[in-house]
Amino acid sequence: MIGNSLTYANDLPARVERLLDAAGYDATVDSVTYPNVSLGDQWERATARKAIAEGRYDVVVLQQGPSAAPDNRMLLKKDAGRFADVIRKSGARPALYMVWPSRTRPQDWEGVDASYTQAAEACRCMLLPAGRAWRMLLEKGDSPLFGEDGFHPSAAGSDLAAIVIAAGISGKPATSFSTDGTLAEAAARALE
Q1: Rounded to 10 degrees, what is the CA torsion of 57, 121, 186, 61?
Q2: pLDDT tens-digit map of 150-171
């Protein structure tokens, strides 16, 4: 998993690994994360590219911030595309982990969804729409998905993201990864 604090908050990689292991996979989930970085920053640091080249991964999950603005959408497409090429050359499948806007920017939901959906289509990456699942659950009522800062995930928010990621990369139903019907239902609807 390559990303920033939205990936390392609540140790999302370990949550994904535990879910996959519990579903019968022998999973190892590594990560290259730094606070407040974009995929362009990750590209420039080169640590992630080196890990992709040296690792024997089945899937490499890419994440950056919400990217709702048109200029950020362009950068997400460009940088996800660069990584997707490197990922495919390594024999792995590229995936984009869609995040969410901060609680104070509800007007950005459509832009976040459009940015990640368009970037996934442009780079032929699997889309892991955790942000879409978040939105569906939040629209049903007050769900404790946001952490105290109103942007990073709470434990439940990370659980929902982990379910979407595990179900998306494995192709198994979201209910295979959670006994929490509310989270599993939101994940399954987002992945449809």
Answers
A1: 20
A2: 999 999 999 999 999 999 999 9
Q: Give me 128's structure tokens.
A: 């892991």
State the pLDDT at residue 142. 66
CATH number for position 89: 3.40.50.1110
User: How confident is the model at residue 47, as a pLDDT?
Assistant: 97
Residue 179 confidence (pLDDT) above 80? no
The structure's pTM equals 0.96
Count of structural domains within the chain:
1
Q: Cβ–Cβ contacts within 10 Å for residue 124, how many?
A: 12
Residues in the chain: 192
Domain that holds residue 187: 2-191
Are the CB atoms for 87 and 2 separated by under 8 Å?
no
Predicted confidence at residue 143, as pLDDT, reads 80
